[in-house]
Amino acid sequence: MDPLALARIQFAANISFHILFPTITIALAWLLVMFKFMHHRTGDNRWMAAYGFWVKIFALTFALGVVSGITMSFQFGTNWPGFMETVGNIAGPLLAYEILTAFFLEATFLGIMLFGNGRVSNRVHTLATTLVAMSTSMSAYWILVLNTWMQHPVGFEMIDGQAFPTDWSAILWNDSLILRFSHMMLASGLTASFLMAGVSSYRWLRGDTALGVKAALRTGVTAAAIIIPIQIWVGDTHGLDTLKVQPQKIAAIEAIWETEQGAPLLLFAWPDEETRSNKFEIGIPKGASLILTHSLNGEIRGLNEFEGGHPPVAPVFFAFRVMVGIGFLMLFVSWIAAWQMRNNDTPSRRVGKVLVWMSFSGWFATLAGWYVTEIGRQPYLVSGVLRTADAVSAVPAPALLTTLVVYLCLYAFLLVAYVTTIFYMARKGSNLGRVEELPKEEINALGVAG
Amino acid sequence: MTENLDWLPVAFAGMMALAMLIYAILDGYDLGVGILLPEANADEKDRMIASIGPFWDANETWLVLGVGLLLVAFPKAHGIVLSTLYLPVASMLIGLILRGVAFDFRAKAKTQTKTLWDRLFFAGSLMAAMSQGYMLGRYITGFDPSTGALGFAVLSGLCVAAGYALIGACWLIMKTEDVLQRKAIKWGRTYLLVTCVGIVSVSIVNPLVNSRIFDRWFAVPEIFWLAPVPVITAVLAILCYRSLRSLPKEGDKHCWIPFACTVGINVLAFAGLAYSFFPYIVPDQLTIWEAASATGSLLFIFYGVCVVLPAILLYTAFSYRVFWGKAVPLKYD
Fold first, then answer.
1. CB B264 within 8 A of CB B230
2. Quick one: closest CA in A to B69, which residue?
3. Chain B nearest-CA residue for A403
């Protein structure tokens, strides 16, 4: 097989596996801070019980994120040496600052957050929890600065084939950063809240009366119901921005081959790169123009204007529809659940079951979204600056293939172990979590659990 | 920029070396604990893992910093070194992944699977340690692909695993008591001997396989101020051995001595290696100046490091203070 394809598949496999876990922990950390805060304020032990259960899920998820993240720091060099050689002067400092300001902070205070109860005061423990939450978000900021720069490079000049920064503030506060960063943070919020709602619903449906289950269920549903409309709005705005900075990506998302005014919004189609046209089109006339230009006859540039420099159409087109589809499903389910819970502790059992099925829906939406934006950047690694094919390493195909197979087996094994363990913990929580009968010290000790 | 900034790559090489050294010590002890795991019973295993629980994640971050500095400050070297070491890097990463997740899974997954996760914890620790040693060996020989050089790399892999087991045992002597502590003392004696054999053989083979290192080590007058390195190393090894013979003492006195000696040996061995290679970052191919990134970018990171690194060291110290003393079983439920 082609080493370029193998290097890409391997990197995509690693980064896809990795993002699953930070997507949960970035927002879950803030939900844990909220649980602690609610407990401080109300003295209600339900919040501490919810914290006690979810901090264990957090620890497990965090560990998977750390180990898969270490892999990333090596694969930048092993798979894409041309990346650092060409744009290292910009990517390097951003990665270095991520390590220095985020990784150490989160790793060190995670120890205190998980195991420090009883050794530090409650106040210091809450501070440690907050620092972990802040540093996971900080890490998302740095990596999105880098990613935004790869999508829309600014503030640099090319000298002898190497990028040199000329304006760090333009790089750090890239015009399209705020949208991309918010989009990712909200995606994390949705992923964590659907996980919390789903697993709590699973416990509730099994007749788990442990303290904190319903509090977590309500937290998950409420957070999801609040975040999803904001996310849809941010996503739409992000699309408008992309039309400006990466029109070829939008053309691929909408599968528009010829530049046209009043382009239709395709609900389904089969984009064919050979004939450079779509089969089986079902669309809403003028829909795409209306959404993207806010005018029925707005002009959208087609893929043929970017021939040789636009991404593969089908994966971007379909991934986008998967993401949007899950997004609207999330809107529908979370609002129904929230509506049913306005006077009740719980939704109907049927909606409860749907929530269980949607526990990991955030993963699918997040991955689909990342595929849209990253495949949508192809054939460039850094838009207009560096082609992916020019950055690939000379590692021979057999070595890539062998390690790819091993990585894939390992990731499949770990994913199965992770998901089954989460539900196992949910079931075990039912047997052990009779917190209301425990004395206060043991309730506090729940916070210790790793 | 007209100002002379030749010191900048040196500063970055120094920081990278420091990060790698701290990594070898800190993750060394927790990988070592993983390597020693099969020799303990179920209850002791929990205690051993509890002793490293709050630290392992931050310990591994030093590796990310070390590799990160290589990546950002010396991108050309990062590309050459990691592409050449592609397979051992992959095997180290798989080891680190297995062990990092086994930590949590062993306590949270079904009880029946705990043995599986313990085995993976051991296997992952050993794999990571051996791969690191193997890579060090390949690096020392300048990536020479001959059979002899590869054999040396395997030897180096075994040495590093033994060295980690030693520092892991010394860590346990400080962090545990009673039966487990006595076991750790016994492990410490065994692995101290193995490690010493390893260091001596690496030191003999190293100048033989690499003539540039031979010239560096045995040139006059450098040899005179280099001589204290092996001498102090030997003194520390003897001190460590005597301490391991006399422990445990009344009131747990001096339980920190073996750990301190081992750290000392580690630092000296590392300094010896660093001296041998400077100013090359890819042995005999690329110097740190040739491999360095643009000075503007390096300065931008350098200022950040000056501010952030002391803070990192401070809160790391705080974390060790919080978990000072003997390890208590971590409560998972």
1. no
2. A96
3. B90
A137: pLDDT confidence band, cut at 50, 70 and 90?
very high
Q: Which residue has the higher pLDDT, B111 or A212?
A: A212
A397 touching B (Cβ < 8 Å):
no
Residue of B nearest to A105 (CA): B312
Question: What's the whole-model pTM score?
Answer: 0.87
The CA distance from A308 to the nearest CA of chain B, in Å, is 29
CA dist., res. A43 & res. A67, Å (int): 36
CA distance B171 to B188: 10
Is there a contact between A114 and B90 if contact means CB atoms under 8 Å apart? no
- Bridge partners (DSSP) of residue A260 are A300
Model confidence at A378: pLDDT above 60: yes
Q: What are the tens digits of pLDDT across the range A395-441? A: 788 888 888 999 999 999 999 999 999 998 888 875 544 444 444 44
A412 class by beta-carbon count within 10 Å (0-12 exposed, 13-18 middle, 19+ buried): exposed
Residues of A in contact with B105 (CB under 8 A): 60, 417, 421
Q: Alpha-carbon distance A319 to A336, whole Å? A: 26
What is the rounded distance in angstroms from the CA atom of residue B133 to the CA atom of residue B154? 8
Find, among B238, B229, B232, B236, the residue nearest to B273 by Cα.
Answer: B229
Please list every residue in chain A whose beta carbon sits closer than 8 Å to the beta carbon of residue B120: none
Residue numbers in B near A432 (CB within 8 A): 333
Q: What DSSP designation does A166 have?
A: S
| A111 contacts chain B (CB < 8 A) | yes
Which residue of B lies nearest to A111 if distances are taken between CA atoms?
B54
- Look up residue A140 and give its two tokens: 């998302």
Which residue, among B150, B153, B230, B246, has the nearest Cα to B196 in the 3D structure? Answer: B230
Report the distance separating Cα A60 and Cα A424, nearest Å.
Answer: 13
- Give the DSSP H/E element, type plus range, for residue A250: helix A247-254
User: Measured between alpha carbons, how far is B283 from B279 in angstroms, rounded to an integer?
Assistant: 9
Whether the predicted interface score ipTM is above 0.85? no
Is omega for the bond preceding B248 within 30 degrees of 0, making it cis? yes
